[in-house]
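> Could you send the RNA polymerase sigma-70 factor (ECF subfamily) prediction when you get a chance?

Sure thing. Input:
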Amino acid sequence: MTQATDRNDAASGIEGVLLANRDRILRFLRLRGAGDAAEDLFQDLWMRLTEKRTGPIADPIAYAMRAANNLMLDRYRAGRQRELRDKAWGEAAAVQKPSAEAVLISREQLALVEQAIAATGERPARIFRRFRVDGILQRDIAAEMGISLSTVEADLRKVYAALAAVRRQFDAG
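Output:
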């Protein structure tokens, strides 16, 4: 026998077992908690077992049931991991009300940032806001303002330098 023939015989054998015991396997999956997903899990089981190259199986129904049980365990573990991840993300996303002191510090820092941006001049401040806040491309800003792209880049560098100086103040203080 050729290798292809061996594989076809093995696939036909396990396919026959799956077809003959379809209702039994679906009932098993439902009892294990699959509910409406039992049909989908049966299809996954079919794909796993018919694509896998195996030799002779001593007890094919036990093999299929064990594979179905493993699918259910995988499903349970994936669901548990999803729950833990969602819970962790939810806890991380839970917004805690900042203290009055933190609010005051943030407002003072924002005022310093706004002052630093304004100190760079009207055009650099406008370019910075159009680029960073409005999301306009640098070349579009240059066309809109009637200046060169290199002027836009230079003005942005000027604002970034001012913001870096403010950041150093925050880090030092």
